[in-house]
Amino acid sequence: MHDPSKPLAFTTPFWDKVISAFWLAFLAILGVNLISNMVLFGDPMGPGEAKLEKFGYPIEVVAEETGGGEGGGGDKMVSSLPMIAAASLDEGTAVFRKCAACHTSEAGGANKTGPNLHNIVGDAIGDRNGFKTTDSLKAIGGNWSHDKLDDYLENPKRLAPKGSMSFAGLKKAEDRAAVIKFLVSVTDNPPALPAQ
Ligand code: HEC
Predict the structure, then answer these.
(1) Where residue 134 falls among pLDDT bands split at 50, 70, 90?
(2) Which of 20, 59, 81, 160 is close enough to 137 for a disulfide, judged by CB 3.0 to 4.6 Å?
(3) pLDDT value at 75 more than 80
């Protein structure tokens, strides 16, 4: 059996096999991990935080679609146009407080972060006195009809993806109807409300 004059070391043929089997298993697991990271994330080191976010994105989209119900969102927004005529101007004035951080509404009012909005309804899009409008907003073209305002105010990035209005949008059609009523009230010769 064991020769007591030699130290008991893991050098017998038996222990050689055990140790090399262990290393083989270790390398195999490492290899499978590297390859699966490569396949899943295109990076042998596995997902960085940014990639993990991307990986989770499809789930977020589903959650948004089923979680809606706040009155529109995405392309399925509810038009506020039928509600403008009956909307309350007081409510519109109150909703405009959200806008007033960036916009004035009186005649000759200053441009702030956003342009002055006096006479905005029916006016050319992206042509406000002395304000540096983005090309993205100008690219919408045409005039601020009630309809375009409704669309823009629900989600400013939909019509002007690279526009500079950092505002999430008014998701409730009632709020948009009210604020459009307010914008009409600060416009000297507003176009007639479109027939419903
Ligand atoms: C955080 C600041 C901010 C808030 C809040 C904000 N806006 Fe704006 N708004 C901007 C900026 C900046 C622009 C210029 C966008 C561009 O050039 O792309 C703009 C542009 C506009 C325009 C287009 C003007 C044009 O040049 O034709 C309208 C209309 C408008 N805003 C209405 C509103 C209304 C109504 C609200 C409130 C519901 C609101 N905004 C809230 C910053 C803001």
Answers:
(1) very high
(2) 160
(3) no
> For the CA atoms of the chain, what is the radius of gyration?
32
Is residue 102 within 8 A of residue 156, CB to CB? The reply is no
Whether 143 contacts 125, CB under 8 Å? yes
CB 182 within 8 A of CB 120: no
Q: Is 113 in the pocket of ligand 1 (CB under 6 A)?
A: yes
Q: Which of 80, 96, 99 to mutate to test the pocket of ligand 1 (most atoms within 8 A of CB)?
A: 99
Give the angle subtended at the CA of 140 by the CAs of 139 and 144, to the nearest 5°.
Answer: 135
For ligand 1, whether the C-beta of 177 sits within 6 Å is no
**Does residue 77's CB lie within 6 angstroms of at least one atom of ligand 1?**
no
Pull the structure tokens for residue 194.
């479109």
**Torsion angle, alpha carbons of 172, 176, 179, 180, to 10:** -170
User: Does the C-beta of 121 come closer than 6 Å to ligand 1?
Assistant: no
pLDDT digits 0-9 by tens, 77-98: 899 999 999 999 999 999 999 9
Distance of alpha carbon 125 from alpha carbon 127, whole angstroms: 6
